[in-house]
Design goal:
alpha/beta, six-stranded parallel sheet, 13 helices, 28% helix, 25% strand
C-alpha cells in the first residue's frame, strides 16, 4: 500500500508499505477514505516530537471502511463506515475510567506517533470498539474528518479547560484550524466577547465570519493595549493559546484578567517563560491538556443536527497521490490561505 512516511526532521516521502494486519483481538483494519494533515504532523516533521521515530507513517485523523476485525471486536464488522478518533482508548484502565483517554495505558495518542497512522491506504486501529465511531447514514464524510481531532481538541483543551461561560470575555491566540475550532465551540456557551488574535488578516476575516466579535492583528505589537481597550481595562476571563510558541504564551499572560484562565492548546517544542513574579497574586489558572475525545459523541450529534458545520474549515482538497503537495500547501498557509486540507484515497 502507499503511505506517507516520516523519515526524520524535514524529511518525508510516499513509500510502499505492507498492508497492516490484525495484531491483537481488539484491532480493526480500516480502509481509509479521507484523511487530513494536522499541525502536530508539522511539529513532528520539524523534530519537535522526539517520541515519534523516523519510519513512522504519519496521520491520526480520518474516516474509512472496516476491512477486517479481531476476534475481540463486538461493535463493528467489515463494511461499516467509521470515524477514527485521534486517541485510542481501551476504556478499562485506570486513566480511561477517569475519562482521561489521552493517557490510556495501552493507547492514547499513538496513531501516527508511536504506531503507524492514517495517511495511508489502510490503518490498524487498536481498541476498535472504544476508539472508532459509526458514521450515521447520510453524514458528510468531510465534516466528520474534523471530528477526529481538531473539533474535540479546540473544545476540550480550549473551551472546557478555559471555563468559557455565558457573558464572559474570551481571547483566542491563533486563528489556525484549532483556534477556529475553539471559536466555533466557544459559542455553545454564549460568551459576550470572542476576540481572535493572529498575524494573518485572511484568517482573521475567516474568524469574523465564524463568529468572532472582534479581531486583532498582532503583527505591529500593542496587542495587550488593544485587548484592554476592548475589555474596559480588565483583560479577558479566558485566553486560549492555540499556536505553541513562546511569544504567544507570553501574550496570554499579558492579556488575562485577574481570576482568569489561560488554557494552553498549542504544541510547544521549546521552553516558555512563566512570569510568576507578576501572576502569583492574580488568581490565575493555567491549564494544559492532551485531547481525550470524550466530547466526540456530543460533537457528532451537534454536527448531525446542523448546529455546527466543521466542513467550513476545509479550504483545499487533494487526491492521496498529491499528499506532498497537500503538505506544501498546508505548510505555507499564509501564502495559500489554507486552513484544513482534505486528502481523498
Amino acid at each position: 500500500m502507499k503511505a506517507l512516511v516520516y523519515r526524520g526532521p524535514g524529511d518525508k516521502a510516499i513509500e510502499d508499505r505492507p498492508k497492516p494486519e490484525i495484531e491483537a483481538p481488539g484491532d480493526a483494519i480500516v480502509r481509509m477514505v479521507k484523511t487530513t494533515i494536522c499541525g502536530t504532523d508539522l511539529h513532528i516533521l520539524k523534530g519537535d516530537v522526539a517520541t515519534c521515530a523516523p519510519g513512522r507513517i504519519l496521520g491520526h485523523e480520518g474516516v474509512g471502511v472496516i476491512e477486517s476485525v479481531g476476534a475481540g471486536v463486538t461493535t463493528f464488522r467489515p463494511g461499516d463506515r467509521v470515524l477514527i478518533s485521534c486517541i485510542s482508548a481501551c476504556g478499562t484502565c485506570e486513566n480511561c475510567r477517569r475519562g482521561m483517554y489521552s493517557h490510556c495505558r495501552t493507547g492514547g495518542w499513538i496513531l501516527g506517533h508511536r504506531i503507524d497512522g492514517t495517511q495511508a491506504e489502510y490503518v490498524r486501529t487498536p481498541h476498535a470498539d472504544t476508539s472508532l465511531y459509526p458514521i450515521p447514514d447520510g453524514a458528510d464524510d468531510e465534516a466528520l474528518v474534523m471530528l477526529s481531532d481538531i473539533l474535540p481538541t479546540g473544545f476540550e483543551c480550549g473551551v472546557l479547560n478555559g471555563k468559557v461561560a455565558p457573558g464572559s470575555t474570551v481571547a483566542i491566540v491563533g486563528a489556525g484550524p484549532i483556534g477556529l475550532a475553539a471559536l466555533l465551540t466557544a459559542q455553545f456557551y454564549s460568551p459576550a466577547q470572542i476576540i481572535m488574535i493572529d498575524l494573518d488578516d485572511n484568517r482573521l476575516e475567516v474568524a469574523r465570519q465564524f463568529g468572532a466579535t472582534h479581531v486583532v492583528n498582532s503583527r505591529g505589537g500593542g496587542v495587550a493595549e488593544d485587548i484592554r481597550g476592548l475589555t474596559d481595562g480588565r483583560g479577558v476571563d479566558t485566553v486560549i493559546e492555540a499556536v505553541g510558541v513562546p511569544a504567544t504564551f507570553l501574550l496570554c499572560q499579558d492579556i488575562v484578567s485577574a481570576g482568569g484562565t489561560i488554557a494552553n492548546v498549542g504544541v510547544h517544542g521549546q521552553k516558555v517563560d512563566l512570569h510568576l513574579e507578576r501572576l502569583w497574586s492574580e488568581n490565575i489558572t493555567i491549564t494544559t491538556r492532551l485531547v481525550d475525545t470524550v466530547s466526540t459523541p456530543m460533537l457528532l450529534k451537534t454536527v448531525q443536527s446542523g448546529k455546527i458545520d466543521p466542513a467550513r474549515l476545509i479550504t483545499h482538497r487533494f487526491p492521496f497521490d498529491r499528499i506532498l503537495d497537500a503538505y506544501d500547501t498546508f505548510g505555507r498557509a499564509a501564502d495559500t490561505k489554507a486552513l484544513k486540507v482534505l486528502i481523498a484515497m
